[in-house]
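Troubleshooting: if your tokenizer reports a length mismatch, compare your output against this known-good record of 301 residues.
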Amino acid sequence: KVSRIQHTTKERSMIKAEIILDSIAPSGKRLTTFVLTYPRFIHSEFMTHRAFSRNASSSRAIPVNKQIEMIEKNPVVPIAFTKNQKGMQGGEALVGEEAEQAEFYWLEAMKQAVHQARKLSSMGVHKQYANRILEPWAHITVVCTATDFANFFALRIHPAAQPEIQALASAMYDEYENSNPQKLEVGDWHLPFIVEGDFSENSEMFAKINGMTMDELNLKRSVARCARVSYLNHDGSNVTIQQDLELYDRLVGATPIHASPAEHQAVAASDPDLRSGNFNGWVQYRQTLKDQKITEFKREN
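Known-good structure output:
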């Protein structure tokens, strides 16, 4: 007989949705940026929704010991272990001792994965490999920006969807329905992760010394923070202006450029029929960047 698990699945698994910026342009089109936390094992399903601009925390960036600490503290456990049957949907949920036993085996597999990941790390194997075997029990943090959410809600707040993505979509819907977007004028910027403290005298002085407007400075800082999926560094420390700008330059100044973090920033427009990238009624910053999309490529020998 398997001993009773001390913590509930609800306490272990995190599915969270927070709107960090919500704006309406004169076009009438709403642009919304979420920060989401959900089980990594549904990330491929979330990625199928092409109306979304996304950046996510990466297994290639998080130190192995940090990833292990996070999953041991708060491992992903399925909302319910359902019975096997034909098709993509599980049958009825296991209950009682069967459910406890399934959860026990799930967490025993995690312990084995942690043990093997530590072995790989101790050998000097890079985290882009050692962390991969931890992913079934890991959460992922994603910044998501879009003007169109209805299709996602219709498909995922539905009994045919996997329970975890149903829960994510429901959390997003509740946030979306209860949010009061700010009204912007033509030419105003939607800049996720830019907060009141970024308009300090120190920031204004830095911009002036470096020949930038505050809009230019905060635009670059927003891009860097969307790439990082946080205001902070991976170790939780505060980020300096210089660190944000250095990250921006590594992304947008690279050849080829890494342009996806520049998809979350946009200028309010008046034309509701304007299409810019995957946004309606807004001019997406990525679309203004030179060489933001490679159209020809030939491998050098």
